[in-house]
Amino acid sequence: MKKQGWLIVNGFLQGVKYDEMYSLLQAAATKRGVDLLCKRNDELIFPVGEIPKSLPDFVLFWDKDIALARAFERVGVPTFNSARAIEICDNKIRTAEILTERGVKTPKTVFAPKTFEGIGYTKTAFIDRTAEILGYPMVIKEAYGSFGKQVYLANDFAEAVAIVEGIGHKEFIMQEFIRESRGRDIRVNVVGENVVAAMLRYNENDFRSNVSGGGKTQSVTLTEEQERIAIAACRACETDFAGVDVLFGKDDALVCEVNSNPHFKSTLDCTGVDMSECVLDHILEKL
Predict the structure, then answer these.
(1) 200 — alpha (psi -120 to 50), left (phi > 0) or beta?
(2) 89-105+180-273 has which fold?
(3) First vs last Cα of the chain: how many Å apart?
(4) Is CATH 3.40.50.20 the right assignment for the domain spanning 4-86?
């Protein structure tokens, strides 16, 4: 019998870059005799503890709606990536914790102290204490964010304070700035235990390399260490597939971030490798 899956996407994120990616995933499924129906998270509305009666054989979860992913898992629907993997990758605080616990090398990281909405960071002495650990420049990242938009570089205490004031009450981390990797990193796409594609991203005008922020790309051959650390990061974060951002350290590679639903169209354009094909093969092997 032909298998049926649901491709869960966010109903509030719209644009050509999203539609192209969803089409690639559906095309890969069709080639393998699988019906992959696109379902928006805002369409799947039901009481807590209940679930639609007609369910698919699996869910390909290309969103960060963790509660919805858990709802499918509770009733036994195989979900890729899992709610736990999405939760780890979505929160940069949790990502840093897990990678460090599992021995995956990352930039030195300090968590900001918690504050509350309506109060914010009314005291900034913790920034000075953090600078004693990390030095300047210092990278400041909101716990939740995509495409590099919530990532900032503070060159001194005044800039750090201004950034923190702009963040308001939201959670964030502060990280060591890896000078050797300024404006460049490697996006490594991993499926299962295998690297399927990698590209160098670089930006001469920004410390961030994101393609959406003007970064350029070129195909790259990974070193054994870069490949090893990307796979180790995915294993630590419990992903079935992910895009791992690997930095160029002074001595070794470091993991910057792990993306549980990577935008792989730029990698396809750069390398010719369609990650969606690998993702569907992986899912069918696991079912």
Answers:
(1) beta
(2) D-amino Acid Aminotransferase; Chain A, domain 1 (3.30.470)
(3) 14
(4) yes
CATH hierarchy code of domain 109-177: 3.30.1490.20
β-pair type (194-202, 35-40): unpaired
The SS3 of residue 161 is: helix
Q: Distance (Å, rounded) from C-alpha 80 to C-alpha 82?
A: 5
Copy the structure tokens of residue 241.
Answer: 């597939």
The two structure tokens encoding residue 69 = 């992913």
**Which residue in this structure is represented by tokens 């399927």?**
196
**Interval 211-259: pLDDT, tens:** 666 777 899 999 999 999 999 999 999 999 999 999 999 888 999 999 9
- Please say whether the beta carbons of 265 and 24 come within 8 A: yes
Going by C-beta distance under 8 Å and a sequence separation of 6 or more, which residues neighbour residue 218? 199, 200, 202, 270
Predicted TM-score (pTM) of this structure: 0.93
| CA separation for the pair 56, 120 (Å, rounded) | 44
Residue 82 near residue 238, CB atoms below 8 Å: yes
Round to whole Å and give the CA distance between 110 and 176: 9
Residue 267: phi and psi, rounded to 5, are: -65, -40
Cα angle at 132 between 130 and 135, to 5 degrees? 90
Spatial distance between the Cα atoms of 82 and 226, rounded to a whole number of angstroms: 25
